[in-house]
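Standup, Tuesday
Yesterday: got the pipeline producing structure tokens again.
Today: sanity-check two examples.
Blockers: none.

Example 1:
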Amino acid sequence: MNWQGSRTNQRGTVLLESLLAVAILGTIAVVFLGAICGGLFGADIIEEHFVAANLVRTQLEEIKSQPYNVEDQYTVTVSPPPEYTVLIDVTDLSPGEHPDSLQKTAVTVLRAGKHILTVETLKVNR
């Protein structure tokens, strides 16, 4: 009789150990999958900022190479990828005694309507 009671108790222990192992493996799998999803999301954000930085840099170089525009308007010359939009905002900062001498130019990149990056620079009429 002692032998049968020991055998039933052992079956319960094996079941408990199996359930505990499955729970530990499940926890590890959840943490691992969460890290993978976070990495993929981070890679998408990095790519988005990389594309935006290249668009801004190219557009600002083009604006700097153009002559000073008194009407405070420059056209977008870069061709952005789908879903990306490039905006140019020019503000006249000229002091009253020297009209049309200083501009602040801001280039903004949007992706699907969401702001990604804005870079500002100054342009002087020489």
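Example 2:
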Amino acid sequence: MIGLKQSDDISERLLIKGRVRVTIMATEKLKARKVVRKSCLKQLTTDAEKYRMKALELGAADAKVIPASHVVVDERVRLKCSVPRCHLYGECVNCPPYTPPPGQMRRILKKYKYAVLFKTHVSPKTDFVDDEKWHVGHMMHQRRIHEIAGAIEALAFNDGYYLAAGFAAGGCKTALCSGQVCQFLDSGRCRFPLKARPSMEGVGIDVFDLVTKVGWDVYPIAVREVDPESVGCAISVGIVFIH
């Protein structure tokens, strides 16, 4: 998690990785870059690598720059939000049925060329696998994905990629608001407007397909009936489309 506290020309940046807080003193603010109509490939490649490294700095276990064309949007992915019905379906503005439908997302993503895909390792994996611990355990891991996605999107925006868009993991109602009533649906005012993002699955992105495509291990987790020892790893995944 990144927080900025301004004091004259010195910023104190607090970076939280898991339960370890690291304090870094920065003497310069970010420099805004002039927007250009067309970014040269060399600059875009350099920037994409910078965002990949930023994801690692913010706590990602791995991150890759990928062609946006690697991302598959499938209506069946969003169907799984309602069949069987997720407990967050209709409970949060960043979950279906409020998120952009797959057809719209497919048209939108065709306009992007590059994205930064990142993952975090869920440790202990019982935070995802254990039937009881999952209810609270998953929140911290998915919160980090929201925060990394938001931070990278903001950095790209500052560099002139004003159409950068990030997607996270899980519902922001639990990841950020600890299960409280979605304030946006209640009053039209989001508690975390710069952090809250739709999940990749919530807009129809086939995360399993994408993760295996880049060579990462992933296991389906059916909480009640799967032997936890058969799950080799648990991960949480986010993506930011850059340009």
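Quick observation on example 2: The radius of gyration is 18 Å. The helical segments are 41-57, 75-82, 102-109, 126-129, 134-158, 172-175, 183-187, 207-213.
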